[in-house]
Amino acid sequence: MNELITKINASFETLKADAELQAEKGNKAAGTRARKTSLELEKLLKEFRKASLEASKA
User: How many CB atoms lie within 10 A of CB 37?
Assistant: First the structure.
């Protein structure tokens, strides 16, 4: 589960950086990357939720 949390943190930092570039500088490519990363982050968060539920039952 720690590895999953590390992946989530890395994806969030990537999303944050790209979203800031889009918002501050109007960088369209950064916006595209941010949207792609948000989809990856969504999958990781679903995995985390599943792992968290399994851990709480054990």
Answer: 20
